[in-house]
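In this supplementary section we document a worked example of the pipeline. Step one takes a protein sequence of length 240 as its only input; no multiple sequence alignment statistics are reported here. Step two produces a three-dimensional model, which step three serialises into structure tokens for compact storage. The input and output of this example are shown verbatim.
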Amino acid sequence: MDWSEDGIVVSVRPHGESSAVVELFTRTQGRHLGLVRGGRSKRMRPLLQPGNSVHATWRARLAEHLGQYTLEPAELRAAALMDDPTRLAALTTLMSHVQLVAEREAHERLHDALLIVLGALNEDDNWAPLMVRWELGLLEELGFGLDLAACAATGTREDLHFVSPKSGRAVSAAAAAPYKERLFELPAFLRGLPLPPPGPDAVQAGFALTGFFLERHVFAPRAMAPPEARDRLIRRLARL
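The serialised model returned by step three reads:
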């Protein structure tokens, strides 16, 4: 059996003397592994960098087999990020996050959103808020989405400024007043408001929010540590 589709290179690990096992994130096949013959060669090395997009054809005798990939370049964006430690940390974090989804399980919205974030990493200085939004989408795809549409206490959809760490639901400024120091800030760019690009404090608040729920619902239950690259990214963004 076989299929052909564009995919994002997530990870590469050596196999034998010259081959590599390549992990791609595709729109309809999900996170999918395959063997690339000669994947460790100098010719293939620039192509097989995390964050690059490739045209992939996968073939195997049975669906449950590892199978083999034939890959052609589509968009080689990784090289442009190698000299920027902050964007490289963001790329590394994103690829680590992709590995949280189950193998061979389609996550089409998450895949499409990832392409947007990767494009912004190369072309736009305002990529960090997009990454926070992508982490929110990751939580939703994994079954732990936050409810930011209405106040958990009053039901109002106005003046939502906080998120409860217990329920993962938004809380209005008025309802939060007695205990707001125990809540997470809900930055304006996550409220769907048409605003100018958020400042660094808002981005940090966004990462604090998504990081808390990723740790609670994803990393801790799996006995995993959050990606070190994510901590490095947040520190660098704070300095910038």
